[in-house]
Amino acid sequence: MHWLSISSWRWLLILEGIPTVVGGVLTYFLLPSRPAEARFLSQEEKDWMEAVLASEEREKLANHKISALQALMNKRIWHLGLIGFTLNTGMYTMNFWMPKLVKSISTGHSNSLIGLLVMIPHLVGLPVMVMVSRSSDRQRERRFHAAIPAIVAGIALASLGATHSIFPTMLLLSFAALGIYSVYGPLYSLPGDFLTGFA
Protein backbone atom coordinates (compact mmCIF):
# COMPACT_ATOMS: atom_id res chain seq x y z
CA MET A 1 0.00 0.00 0.00
CA HIS A 2 1.65 3.23 -1.15
CA TRP A 3 -1.08 5.87 -1.09
CA LEU A 4 0.09 9.42 -1.79
CA SER A 5 3.65 8.10 -2.21
CA ILE A 6 3.81 7.19 1.48
CA SER A 7 5.11 3.72 2.34
CA SER A 8 2.91 1.25 4.18
CA TRP A 9 4.82 1.33 7.47
CA ARG A 10 4.39 5.11 7.63
CA TRP A 11 0.66 4.72 6.94
CA LEU A 12 0.53 2.38 9.92
CA LEU A 13 1.93 5.11 12.17
CA ILE A 14 -0.40 7.72 10.71
CA LEU A 15 -3.52 5.56 11.02
CA GLU A 16 -2.66 4.54 14.59
CA GLY A 17 -1.83 8.12 15.55
CA ILE A 18 -5.00 9.79 14.29
CA PRO A 19 -7.40 8.18 16.84
CA THR A 20 -4.95 8.96 19.64
CA VAL A 21 -4.72 12.64 18.73
CA VAL A 22 -8.49 12.93 18.21
CA GLY A 23 -9.10 11.17 21.54
CA GLY A 24 -6.69 13.51 23.33
CA VAL A 25 -8.33 16.62 21.89
CA LEU A 26 -11.83 15.34 22.74
CA THR A 27 -10.73 14.47 26.27
CA TYR A 28 -9.28 17.94 26.76
CA PHE A 29 -12.49 19.65 25.70
CA LEU A 30 -15.13 17.20 26.99
CA LEU A 31 -13.75 15.75 30.24
CA PRO A 32 -14.44 18.02 33.22
CA SER A 33 -11.45 19.20 35.25
CA ARG A 34 -13.29 19.27 38.56
CA PRO A 35 -16.46 17.75 39.97
CA ALA A 36 -18.12 21.19 39.91
CA GLU A 37 -17.84 21.19 36.10
CA ALA A 38 -19.32 17.70 35.63
CA ARG A 39 -22.72 18.06 33.97
CA PHE A 40 -23.61 14.43 34.67
CA LEU A 41 -23.54 14.96 38.48
CA SER A 42 -26.34 16.51 40.50
CA GLN A 43 -25.54 19.61 42.57
CA GLU A 44 -25.69 17.52 45.74
CA GLU A 45 -23.16 15.03 44.31
CA LYS A 46 -20.88 17.87 43.18
CA ASP A 47 -20.94 19.48 46.62
CA TRP A 48 -20.27 16.17 48.36
CA MET A 49 -17.39 15.31 46.04
CA GLU A 50 -15.79 18.76 46.38
CA ALA A 51 -16.07 18.52 50.19
CA VAL A 52 -14.43 15.08 50.25
CA LEU A 53 -11.60 16.19 47.97
CA ALA A 54 -11.00 19.34 50.04
CA SER A 55 -10.98 17.28 53.25
CA GLU A 56 -8.45 14.81 51.81
CA GLU A 57 -6.21 17.65 50.63
CA ARG A 58 -6.31 19.34 54.07
CA GLU A 59 -5.42 16.04 55.74
CA LYS A 60 -2.47 15.49 53.39
CA LEU A 61 -1.18 19.03 53.87
CA ALA A 62 -1.48 18.77 57.65
CA ASN A 63 0.19 15.39 57.94
CA HIS A 64 2.58 15.09 55.03
CA LYS A 65 4.23 18.40 54.11
CA ILE A 66 7.13 17.74 51.76
CA SER A 67 9.09 19.98 49.39
CA ALA A 68 10.39 19.10 45.94
CA LEU A 69 13.95 18.75 47.26
CA GLN A 70 12.78 16.55 50.13
CA ALA A 71 10.90 14.45 47.61
CA LEU A 72 14.10 13.88 45.62
CA MET A 73 15.91 12.88 48.80
CA ASN A 74 13.10 10.60 49.94
CA LYS A 75 14.06 6.92 49.76
CA ARG A 76 10.45 5.99 48.99
CA ILE A 77 10.61 8.07 45.79
CA TRP A 78 13.78 6.25 44.71
CA HIS A 79 12.18 2.95 45.66
CA LEU A 80 9.09 3.70 43.56
CA GLY A 81 11.32 4.88 40.70
CA LEU A 82 13.26 1.62 40.80
CA ILE A 83 10.02 -0.37 40.82
CA GLY A 84 8.73 1.65 37.87
CA PHE A 85 11.99 1.15 35.98
CA THR A 86 12.01 -2.62 36.47
CA LEU A 87 8.30 -2.85 35.70
CA ASN A 88 8.73 -0.96 32.43
CA THR A 89 11.80 -3.01 31.56
CA GLY A 90 9.78 -6.20 31.93
CA MET A 91 6.81 -4.80 30.03
CA TYR A 92 8.83 -3.51 27.08
CA THR A 93 10.95 -6.65 26.93
CA MET A 94 7.82 -8.77 26.86
CA ASN A 95 6.07 -6.59 24.27
CA PHE A 96 9.07 -6.31 21.95
CA TRP A 97 10.17 -9.93 22.07
CA MET A 98 6.89 -11.80 22.54
CA PRO A 99 6.19 -12.18 18.78
CA LYS A 100 9.71 -13.47 18.16
CA LEU A 101 9.50 -15.88 21.09
CA VAL A 102 6.11 -17.23 20.03
CA LYS A 103 7.29 -17.57 16.41
CA SER A 104 10.42 -19.49 17.49
CA ILE A 105 8.48 -22.15 19.38
CA SER A 106 5.57 -22.47 16.95
CA THR A 107 7.33 -23.20 13.70
CA GLY A 108 5.18 -23.60 10.65
CA HIS A 109 2.48 -21.18 11.78
CA SER A 110 1.62 -18.10 9.74
CA ASN A 111 2.38 -14.59 10.92
CA SER A 112 -1.37 -13.98 11.22
CA LEU A 113 -1.72 -16.84 13.69
CA ILE A 114 1.32 -15.60 15.62
CA GLY A 115 -0.34 -12.18 15.81
CA LEU A 116 -3.51 -13.75 17.22
CA LEU A 117 -1.51 -15.78 19.75
CA VAL A 118 0.36 -12.67 20.87
CA MET A 119 -2.99 -11.00 21.65
CA ILE A 120 -3.89 -13.66 24.24
CA PRO A 121 -1.66 -12.42 27.10
CA HIS A 122 -2.90 -8.86 26.63
CA LEU A 123 -6.53 -10.00 26.60
CA VAL A 124 -5.90 -11.91 29.82
CA GLY A 125 -4.10 -8.96 31.41
CA LEU A 126 -6.79 -6.36 30.77
CA PRO A 127 -9.65 -7.68 32.93
CA VAL A 128 -7.26 -8.70 35.71
CA MET A 129 -5.76 -5.19 35.71
CA VAL A 130 -9.23 -3.70 36.17
CA MET A 131 -10.10 -6.18 38.95
CA VAL A 132 -6.86 -5.53 40.86
CA SER A 133 -7.28 -1.75 40.55
CA ARG A 134 -10.88 -1.91 41.79
CA SER A 135 -9.88 -4.17 44.66
CA SER A 136 -7.08 -1.78 45.58
CA ASP A 137 -9.48 1.18 45.58
CA ARG A 138 -12.16 -0.70 47.48
CA GLN A 139 -9.75 -1.83 50.20
CA ARG A 140 -7.71 1.41 50.09
CA GLU A 141 -4.56 -0.70 50.03
CA ARG A 142 -1.78 -0.21 47.49
CA ARG A 143 1.42 -2.00 48.52
CA PHE A 144 0.27 -5.63 48.37
CA HIS A 145 -1.90 -4.93 45.31
CA ALA A 146 1.27 -3.73 43.56
CA ALA A 147 3.76 -6.21 45.04
CA ILE A 148 1.91 -9.49 44.47
CA PRO A 149 1.27 -8.95 40.73
CA ALA A 150 4.89 -7.77 40.29
CA ILE A 151 6.15 -10.96 41.93
CA VAL A 152 3.84 -13.07 39.74
CA ALA A 153 5.13 -11.28 36.62
CA GLY A 154 8.76 -11.70 37.69
CA ILE A 155 8.36 -15.43 38.31
CA ALA A 156 6.54 -15.88 34.99
CA LEU A 157 9.20 -13.99 33.02
CA ALA A 158 12.04 -15.82 34.76
CA SER A 159 10.37 -19.18 34.04
CA LEU A 160 10.05 -18.53 30.30
CA GLY A 161 13.56 -19.81 29.68
CA ALA A 162 12.56 -23.32 30.75
CA THR A 163 9.67 -23.69 28.29
CA HIS A 164 9.96 -25.16 24.81
CA SER A 165 6.35 -25.61 23.71
CA ILE A 166 3.54 -23.24 22.90
CA PHE A 167 1.06 -23.93 25.73
CA PRO A 168 3.38 -23.35 28.72
CA THR A 169 4.93 -20.36 26.98
CA MET A 170 1.54 -18.72 26.37
CA LEU A 171 0.49 -19.52 29.93
CA LEU A 172 3.62 -17.88 31.36
CA LEU A 173 3.31 -14.89 29.03
CA SER A 174 -0.30 -14.49 30.16
CA PHE A 175 0.74 -14.52 33.83
CA ALA A 176 3.52 -12.04 33.04
CA ALA A 177 1.08 -9.72 31.25
CA LEU A 178 -1.57 -9.86 33.95
CA GLY A 179 1.07 -9.27 36.60
CA ILE A 180 2.73 -6.35 34.83
CA TYR A 181 -0.50 -4.61 33.86
CA SER A 182 -2.04 -5.12 37.31
CA VAL A 183 0.79 -3.27 39.03
CA TYR A 184 0.20 0.04 37.27
CA GLY A 185 -2.98 1.22 39.03
CA PRO A 186 -1.88 0.62 42.62
CA LEU A 187 1.73 1.67 41.93
CA TYR A 188 0.81 5.01 40.39
CA SER A 189 -1.56 5.70 43.29
CA LEU A 190 1.20 5.37 45.89
CA PRO A 191 2.96 8.74 45.40
CA GLY A 192 -0.31 10.61 45.92
CA ASP A 193 -0.56 9.09 49.39
CA PHE A 194 2.53 10.92 50.67
CA LEU A 195 3.31 13.74 48.22
CA THR A 196 1.36 17.00 48.16
CA GLY A 197 1.60 20.55 47.01
CA PHE A 198 4.56 21.51 44.82
CA ALA A 199 6.15 18.07 45.08
Characterise this structure.
The structure is a single chain. The chain has 199 residues and is mainly α. It has a domain of 135 residues. α4 packs antiparallel against α7. The longest helix has 31 residues. The radius of gyration is 22 Å and the shape is globular.
Features:
199 residues, 7 helices, 0% strand, mainly alpha
Number of strands: 0
- By DSSP (H or I, 4+ residues per run), the number of helices equals 7
**Helix/sheet category:** mainly alpha
Mean pLDDT: 86
First-residue to last-residue Cα separation: 49 Å
Tell me, what's the shape? Answer: globular
Low-confidence segments: none
Helical residue percent band: over 70%
Q: How big a fraction of the residues is strand? A: under 5%
Biggest sheet layout: none
Radius of gyration: 22 Å
Instruction: Give, in order, the helices and strands.
Output: HHHHHHH
Q: How would the blueprint of this fold be written?
A:
Elements: H1 8-30, H2 43-63, H3 68-73, H4 75-105, H5 111-139, H6 143-159, H7 166-194
Helix pairs in contact: 4-5, 4-7, 5-7, 6-7
Task: Summarize, please.
The protein has 199 residues and is mainly α. Helix content is 78%, strand content 0%.
